[in-house]
C-alpha cells in the first residue's frame, strides 16, 4: 500500500510538476528564490502606546505584486496562494521566533455568509498552515463575527471604526485564560478591526495579546500587543 502511494505521488509530480506560484518557474518550493527576494519583505515592528495593542509586526507594503496576490487570494478563488503566504512567513526567522513565543494562534473571523460565498476564510487558511508548521495551538471558535458588515476597503477611517463596533463576539473564553495569543489577519489599514478584537481579548484574563497581518495598506503580517490592566498573561491580536 505504501509503495502504491509513493508511485502515485511520483506520477502526480510528473504530470503536475511543482512551480513557483508567482512566476511559474519549475520549483520544488511554492516560491523561487528570485521571486522571494523581489517581494521586498520588511518584517518590521511598530510600537503603539495609544491602542489596545502595543506592537504591530508586518511583512509587506500593500503595493505592486503583493497587492495583486492579496486581491486574487481573497476575491478571485485562488485559495492555493495561502501556501505561498505561509511559506513567506516561515522563511522569515524573525517572525517565526516571535510566533513561537505564544501559546495560541487564532484568525480574525469573517461572517458565515461571506465565508459561504468565498468558500474559505483567507486568514484561517494561513493560520492553519502556520499552526501546523510551528507547533502552535490553533483555536478557531473563539471570535465570531455576528454581523455581515460592509467591506472595510470601501470606507473612510471613521466609517471603518463604526463599521466594526460590536460586530465580534468572544466565546469559549476559558480556552485563552493565562495564555499568550496571536491573532492573524490579512490586511491592516487603520487598525480598526485589530482594535475591536483586541478590546474583546483584553477582557479575558490572558497574559498578552499580539496581532499578525499578511498585509497592510502597507501589506503585512502584523503583530501588535498591549499589556492589559487586568491581570492577564500575554495576548496578541490584529486585523
Structural overview:
- By secondary structure, the chain is α/β, with parallel strands linked by helices.
- The chain has one domain (33-151, 159-235): Rossmann fold (3-Layer(aba) Sandwich).
- 37% of the residues lie in helices and 17% in strands.
- The chain has nine helices and nine strands.
- The protein has helices at 2-15, 33-38, 64-75, 81-90, 93-100, 112-118, 122-134, 157-163, 192-202; strands at 44-47, 55-58, 104-107, 137-138, 143-145, 168-170, 180-188, 208-216, 234-235.
- Strands 1, 2, 3, 4, 7, 8 and 9 form a seven-stranded mixed beta sheet that branches. It has a two-stranded antiparallel ribbon with strand order 5-6.
- Strand 1 (44-47) and strand 2 form a beta hairpin.
- Helix 4 packs across helix 7.
- The longest helix is centred in the N-terminal third of the chain and has 14 residues, at 2-15.
- The termini are far apart.
Layout of strands and helices, then pairs:
Elements: H1 2-15, H2 33-38, E1 44-47, E2 55-58, H3 64-75, H4 81-90, H5 93-100, E3 104-107, H6 112-118, H7 122-134, E4 137-138, E5 143-145, H8 157-163, E6 168-170, E7 180-188, H9 192-202, E8 208-216, E9 234-235
Parallel strand pairs: 2-8, 3-4, 3-7, 7-8, 7-9
Antiparallel strand pairs: 1-2, 5-6
Helix pairs in contact: 4-7
Summarize the structure in short.
This protein is α/β, with parallel strands linked by helices and 239 residues long.
Average predicted confidence as pLDDT: 80
Number of structurally distinct domains: 1
Outline the low-pLDDT stretches.
218-239
- Gyration radius (Cα, Å) is 18 Å
CATH class: Alpha Beta
Share of helix among residues? 25-40%
Put simply, the count of helices is 9
CATH topology: Rossmann fold
Number of separate strands: 9
Q: What is the beta-strand fraction?
A: 15-25%
Report the span from N to C terminus: 45 Å
Largest sheet: 7 strands, mixed
- Overall structural class, as computed from helix and strand content, comes to alpha/beta
* Backbone shape: globular
CATH architecture: 3-Layer(aba) Sandwich
Order of helices and strands: HHEEHHHEHHEEHEEHEE
Amino acid at each position: 500500500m505504501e509503495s502504491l502511494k509513493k508511485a502515485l505521488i511520483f506520477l502526480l509530480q510528473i504530470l503536475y510538476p511543482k512551480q513557483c506560484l508567482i512566476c511559474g518557474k519549475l520549483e520544488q518550493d511554492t516560491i523561487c528564490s528570485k521571486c522571494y527576494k523581489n517581494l521586498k519583505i520588511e518584517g518590521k515592528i511598530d510600537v503603539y502606546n495609544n491602542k489596545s495593542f502595543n506592537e504591530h509586526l508586518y511583512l509587506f507594503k500593500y503595493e505592486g505584486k503583493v497587492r495583486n496576490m492579496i486581491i486574487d487570494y481573497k476575491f478571485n478563488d485562488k485559495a492555493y496562494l495561502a501556501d505561498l503566504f505561509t511559506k513567506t512567513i516561515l522563511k522569515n526567522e524573525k517572525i517565526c521566533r516571535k510566533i513561537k513565543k505564544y501559546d495560541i494562534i487564532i484568525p480574525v473571523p469573517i461572517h458565515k455568509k461571506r465565508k459561504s460565498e468565498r468558500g474559505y476564510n483567507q486568514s484561517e487558511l494561513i493560520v492553519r498552515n502556520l499552526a501546523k508548521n510551528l507547533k502552535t495551538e490553533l483555536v478557531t471558535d473563539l471570535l465570531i463575527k455576528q454581523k455581515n458588515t460592509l467591506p472595510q476597503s470601501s470606507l473612510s477611517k471613521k466609517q471603518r471604526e463604526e463599521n466594526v463596533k460590536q460586530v465580534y463576539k468572544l466565546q469559549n473564553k476559558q480556552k485563552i485564560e493565562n495564555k499568550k495569543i496571536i491573532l492573524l489577519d490579512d490586511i491592516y489599514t487603520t487598525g480598526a478591526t485589530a482594535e475591536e478584537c483586541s478590546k474583546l481579548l483584553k477582557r479575558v484574563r490572558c497574559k498578552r495579546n499580539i496581532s499578525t497581518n499578511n498585509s497592510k495598506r502597507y501589506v503585512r503580517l502584523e503583530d501588535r500587543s498591549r499589556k492589559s490592566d487586568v491581570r492577564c498573561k500575554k495576548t496578541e491580536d490584529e486585523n
